[in-house]
Each structure stands twice: as structure tokens, then as C-alpha cells.
Amino acid sequence: MPLDSAQRAAEHGGMFRLFCLSLIVFFVAAFHDARAAECPAGTAQCGASNCCGLSQTCIWDGYCVPLGGTYCGGGRSCGPFEDCVAGGTRCAPKGAGKCQTGLTCGPGMTCSVSGDCVPLPKPELTLPQNPPCKDGRVCPAGTQCLPGGGCSRVGWYLCEETGSQCRPGFKCSAERGCVPQLAVDCGRGAWCKPGETCLPEGGCTPSD
């Protein structure tokens, strides 16, 4: 083949490649314009399939996040005053649980001396303290002041004659102790069923 024919063939080949490249660029631009046209008015195309509103910004990987928000990756984001924690699956207030190693500890966790996240220590359970009684004594939690001084379990009452304390449903027994409210009191906490009589040596017998 003569030299000028080879040059002309090479020129034609280069022009053909340039034409093909221009055609590809044209179709890509047309496809992008068509995709952008799918977004509603007031929104902008973001990535291949998302449309961002005026209160959002388009992130490099094609997701929309609120303006000022913290991007966690994978389309997840946190508020402007929050940090991404637990691999971006949760949010925590900025600076909360921030370790020197760069780790951000989630709720219920705190930084250790080594810079790792460890569970927060459980707070000690403190029971509310009762107000002082008239005699100045403070009764322990779960108890109450007695009118004549001293403490008793909540709901219990004091037998003034014997000093015994009886719970609800019981009555004061003679000399000491308590017996069921409907029982026959035999004294000193002993009792018989209704319809029975106390025996002097102990025990019960049916009433006549």
C-alpha cells in the first residue's frame, strides 16, 4: 500500500474513533439529563437514584443527609450535635463518651484508662430516709414512727398495754403477742378457733 494511502486510512480511523467517543459522551449526558428530570421540582439529583431536597445535601456516595448532619456511611446520618457510634448504627451527643483513642462510646458505656469503651458502673441503690419521729429517732426504711415512740413496720400497730406490735389482721393478745382478729385469745399469743374454749393447761375444747 502506498504511504499516502496508509496515512489517509490512519486519519479516517482516528476520526472514526473520535466520532464514537463523542457519541458516547452525548448519550451519557442525555441519560444524566433524563435521570435528573425524574426528580421532583425543588430537588436535585444525587447519585443514581436519590433526589435531595433544599434541607439536604448530597454526599459523595449518592445519599442525601440533613444539612449540618454528621454522615455515618451507608446512607445513615446523625444530627448536627451528634456523633456516629457503634459503627454508625446509633447516634450519641457530640463529645459524650469521646475517648483519647478516637473511639466514641455509646449509651451506657464510658472510656477506660486504656481508651476502650467499658460499661458504666451501676449506681448504688439508696433508699429514701424517713423523716425524724417526735422523739428525734429516724426509723429505718420500711418502718414508721409509733405514737408513743419507737418504730414499727409500715401498717403494723402497737399494743399499748403489752408493747407488742401486731400486723394488720391480728389483734393484741393478753400479756404479750398477737392473735388472728377473729380468733379466741388465750393469752401470750395462744389462740383457739371461733366456737372453741381455751383450756388452762393449753389447747382448745369445743364450747358448750
Provide structural commentary:
The chain has 208 residues and is an alpha+beta fold. Among the domains are: 44-119, no CATH class; 143-206, no CATH class. 17% of the residues lie in helices and 30% in strands. The protein contains one helix and 20 strands. The protein has one helix spanning 3-37, and strands at residues 44-46, 50-52, 56-58, 64-66, 70-73, 76-78, 82-85, 90-93, 109-111, 117-119, 143-145, 151-153, 157-158, 165-166, 170-172, 178-180, 184-187, 190-192, 196-198, 204-206. A two-stranded antiparallel ribbon has the order 1-2. A hairpin with a 2-residue loop joins strand 17 and strand 18. The longest helix has 35 residues, at 3-37. The protein is rod-shaped, with a radius of gyration of 44 Å. The chain starts with a helix and ends with a strand.
Secondary structure tally: strands: 20
Largest sheet data = 2 strands, antiparallel
Helix and strand element order: HEEEEEEEEEEEEEEEEEEEE
Percent strand: 25-35%
The span between the termini is 146 Å
Gyration radius (Cα, Å) is: 44 Å
Q: What are the segments in which pLDDT stays under 50 over at least 5 consecutive residues?
A: 27-36
Can you tell me the overall shape? rod-shaped
- Helix and strand content put the structural class at alpha+beta
Number of helices: 1
Q: Which sequence of strands runs across the widest sheet?
A: 1-2
Average pLDDT, all residues: 79
- Helical amount among residues, as a percent range? 10-25%
Write the layout of secondary structure elements.
Layout: H1 3-37, E1 44-46, E2 50-52, E3 56-58, E4 64-66, E5 70-73, E6 76-78, E7 82-85, E8 90-93, E9 109-111, E10 117-119, E11 143-145, E12 151-153, E13 157-158, E14 165-166, E15 170-172, E16 178-180, E17 184-187, E18 190-192, E19 196-198, E20 204-206
